From TrEMBL:
It comes from Candidatus Eisenbergiella merdipullorum. PANTHER family: GNAT FAMILY, PUTATIVE (AFU_ORTHOLOGUE AFUA_3G00765)-RELATED-RELATED, N-ACETYLTRANSFERASE DOMAIN-CONTAINING PROTEIN. This is GNAT family N-acetyltransferase. Residues 11-167 form the N-acetyltransferase domain. GO terms for molecular function: acyltransferase activity, transferring groups other than amino-acyl groups.
């Protein structure tokens, strides 16, 4: 299976399925949850179905896909997600329904996914957060990621400029590697002196 199911003390991490569309909609329709994400909050179940098909179903057909529904063991209903892109950024992204914030759920899920990636031979992961969303950066630090640099991007489809901080965790022991794709793509890039 190209998305191996994972289990932690409190959580099951598995594929989303069509049966999860109502829970999927609850995650992706919340304005506060999606404030710092590129897409607009979903407005209808039909939008949720299209988003699921384009963002998840297509990924699950690929050879390797790390696109997880984060579920509590108590009911196995998705309350969030952890996704890792399989391009050269190995971008690590996550989201969680608001009522489950501040319980360490994404950190717990993230650590499990990181270990799976290490076993699979993925060399590193990157993650980025809007400078106005330092809580997301705190999750990255708890996963062992280190700040590398900041850059500006015209966020799409919302179409406004955002300064992102890029964090990285090398999984193969090559501590000197820094992914420079975002740096090269942006005319505005710099290293912040503060402790990010």
């Amino acid at each position: 299976m190209n998305t191996p199911e994972l289990e932690t003390e409190r959580l099951i991490l598995r594929r989303f399925t069509e049966n999860d569309l109502e829970a999927f909609y609850q995650i992706y329709s919340d304005e506060e949850v999606n404030t710092f994400l590129p897409w607009f909050p979903l407005k209808t179940m039909e939008e949720a179905r299209r988003f699921y098909e384009s963002r998840y179903e297509t990924k699950y057909r690929e050879k390797s896909a790390y696109n997880y529904a984060v579920c509590l063991k108590t009911d196995n209903i998705p309350i969030g997600y952890v996704n890792v892109s399989m391009d050269d950024s190995f971008d690590f992204g996550y989201g969680l329904r608001r009522e489950f914030w501040h319980r360490g759920i994404i950190t717990e899920a993230g650590k499990s996914v990181v270990e799976q990636l290490r076993k699979a031979g993925i060399p590193y992961i990157t993650a980025t957060h809007d400078v106005n969303n330092p809580r997301s950066g705190a999750v990255m630090k708890r996963l062992g990621m280190k700040y590398c640099y900041s850059y500006e991007e015209q966020w799409q489809p919302k179409d406004f400029p955002v300064i992102f901080r890029m964090y990285q965790l090398n999984l193969d022991g090559n501590e000197d590697r820094v992914y420079d794709g975002y740096w090269k793509a942006s005319y505005v890039h710099f290293v912040e002196k503060t402790n990010c």
